[in-house]
Amino acid sequence: MSVQRSEAIRYRLNQLYYGKSRASARFRIGYIIVDLAIIAFFVAVPLLEKTPLFFVLDYAIAALLAADLGARSYASGDIRRLLRSPIFWVDLVVLLTLLLPQYLLNFGFLRVLRLWTLVHSDIFWRVVGHGRYDDTYVEDVTRAIVTLITFIFVVTGFVYTSFVSGESLDGYVDALYFTMSTLTTTGYGDITLPGTWGKLLSIATMLAGITLFLRLGQTVVRPRKIRFPCPTCGLQRHDVDAVHCKACGEQLNIPNDEE
């Protein structure tokens, strides 16, 4: 492949992933639909893992995710920046569990992180409402809720994988019940995890639960802000009706939808 053709392909991919054209918007809509289908597969894994269809879907999704990672890497043109992105590493972990289901099926609960990567991706918010909710209160609240939900299912999966064979847990519902009662620090005590590692996991879950609930509460009740960089000091967030920057006093001209 010639250098010129290679650069043309890179430019085309960059426009599809990061551009603002109609073709780019349609591509990202398709991208989100595929992501939602992948998440649906991850949710259905407990029902499919013992059927022949599981491996067909698993490897098909692995190929799709590998192609997406490769295309994103090629389109970015800055591999170092990509490697600093937590979303990229989450996708790599998910891909690894897909490629080696015989050995890493017990870590399949990590695939729910795909939901986190979807809602925390710029592509998702640029497409939703044609960017109407990008960098808004709705985005902040949605991200906080999804982070909490993702944490719940990751911990539930870890508990189910590590402790379901013991006397304390009978199945996935018990693992979810334990996670929720521990996360909310209710602590009924009817289901507990055995051993030192069980106690340490319970402590970590309680601490993380308090943090996530506080973050969600703060995000919901705090005054609404809008992202608009101050031309003088660079402060990003301002009140919706702000006329001057509260950091440096610079006059602002924040656009709004009022007639």
TrEMBL record:
<feature type="transmembrane region" description="Helical">
    <location>
        <begin position="87"/>
        <end position="105"/>
    </location>
</feature>
<keyword id="KW-0630">Potassium</keyword>
<feature type="transmembrane region" description="Helical">
    <location>
        <begin position="197"/>
        <end position="217"/>
    </location>
</feature>
<dbReference type="GO" id="GO:0005249">
    <property type="term" value="F:voltage-gated potassium channel activity"/>
</dbReference>
<keyword id="KW-0812">Transmembrane</keyword>
<dbReference type="InterPro" id="IPR047871">
    <property type="entry name" value="K_chnl_Slo-like"/>
</dbReference>
<dbReference type="Pfam" id="PF07885">
    <property type="entry name" value="Ion_trans_2"/>
</dbReference>
<keyword id="KW-0631">Potassium channel</keyword>
<feature type="transmembrane region" description="Helical">
    <location>
        <begin position="141"/>
        <end position="160"/>
    </location>
</feature>
<feature type="domain" description="Potassium channel">
    <location>
        <begin position="150"/>
        <end position="215"/>
    </location>
</feature>
<keyword id="KW-1133">Transmembrane helix</keyword>
<keyword id="KW-0472">Membrane</keyword>
<feature type="transmembrane region" description="Helical">
    <location>
        <begin position="29"/>
        <end position="48"/>
    </location>
</feature>
<dbReference type="InterPro" id="IPR003938">
    <property type="entry name" value="K_chnl_volt-dep_EAG/ELK/ERG"/>
</dbReference>
<dbReference type="GO" id="GO:0016020">
    <property type="term" value="C:membrane"/>
</dbReference>
<protein>
    <submittedName>
        <fullName>Ion transporter</fullName>
    </submittedName>
</protein>
<dbReference type="InterPro" id="IPR013099">
    <property type="entry name" value="K_chnl_dom"/>
</dbReference>
<keyword id="KW-0407">Ion channel</keyword>
<keyword id="KW-0633">Potassium transport</keyword>
<keyword id="KW-0406">Ion transport</keyword>
<keyword id="KW-0813">Transport</keyword>
